Amino acid sequence: MDIKKEIAELNQELIDLRRDFHKHPELGFEEFRTSEIIANYLKECNLEVKNIAKTGVVGLLKGSEPGFTIMLRADIDALPVQEKNDISYKSIYEGKMHACGHDGHTAMLLVAAKVLSKHRNEIKGNIKFIFQPNEEDAGAEIMINEGVLENPKVDAALGLHLWSPIESGKIGIGNGPIMASSHYFKLTIKGKGGHGGAPHLSIDPINCGMHVMQAVQAIQTREVDALAPTIITFCKLQAGSSPIIIPEQLEVEGSIRCLHEGFEEVKQRFERIIRCTCEAHQAEYALEIKCGNILLNNDTIMAERVKVVAMEVVGPRNITQSNINVMLGEDFAEFAARVPSAFYFLGVGNKEKNTNYPHHHPFFNIDEDVLPIGVEMHIRGALEYLNRK
Ligand SMILES: [Zn+2]
Ligand SMILES: [Zn+2]
């Protein structure tokens, strides 16, 4: 099987699919159009197709002989971003855009499924192609709860993200923790309102809150090893209504991100500093913390397998370890926590083509010339796993 040639023959189809998804972006759990196109495409490839998790789709390719099952995952959702690109396939939906590359993910995995489906007779075991809705807000867990890892039981998983911080055509792969856990918090500091000119008669929640926001920043380095990346950011503050009235309370929201296993410890320190600072200021507080994403940990053996495949597809000079550890979350982590998995990046950053904007930016776009590389990575990744095991 001449993989490169077969992919090249489908190059126009690959680009057309991607541009069509780009033009019609749908937000998490609203990917009805996208999901229908995916399901029809997979049916035409003679795969067993199932809808799952509202707008998710699973296609199962059974090889000619029994064996292990590998899962390949693409996420299909868009973002609430107004596109500013001036391109023929610009989003036609107001305020919605594929600003993370998931349009490319969907197209690449569909074409990979088509190529692999023609070689059913050479495949031992099964390949599960999963098209996940709502990556930007926890769609993976729902797919798992609805049984995506069962029937047949998934033995390993691979996920690929197009990545603008990496130069076009390079593959970024690493072992261990690669994308951070993220937890969102809401902190309410309760004081006692009063006159701005007589603060000694009130309990000023804003003054207390400022001390809290400063103090918790010392957790990284002073309480957690500087080599265990930890970020605490405050992104929303709400208090007061007038320049002469001390408000009753201050509400702040933000996130805690850890690229290490020690979130519970960070959380305890965070709470302790809030408790003690509030006590010092005679204020009371309420704290809610919820999990956004768990830590994405790559399995060492699976990551090695991706490296072997990448050597073949792009060559050793185009494999990079830079820009692959990020403090952003990725819900592929839910699969990686349950089966040996690797998540890797394919660079789309090219200054000349204006494809080096950050993800989620209104000018975000991808270098389409790398899409065939992603297709080949999917195909060889699956074959390498099934043949070697
Ligand atoms: Zn994103
Ligand atoms: Zn993404």
From TrEMBL:
Keyword Manganese: yes
Keywords: Hydrolase, Manganese, Metal-binding
Domain Peptidase M20 dimerisation residues, every copy: 183-274
Lineage top rank: taxon: Bacteria
InterPro entries, per the entry: Amidohydrolase, Bact_exopeptidase_dim_dom, Peptidase_M20, Peptidase_M20_dimer
Cofactors required: Mn(2+)
Cofactor binding note from Swiss-Prot or TrEMBL: The Mn(2+) ion enhances activity.
Binding of Mn(2+), residues: 100, 102, 136, 161, 360
Molecular function in Gene Ontology: hydrolase activity; metal ion binding
Pfam family, one: M20_dimer
Protein name: Amidohydrolase
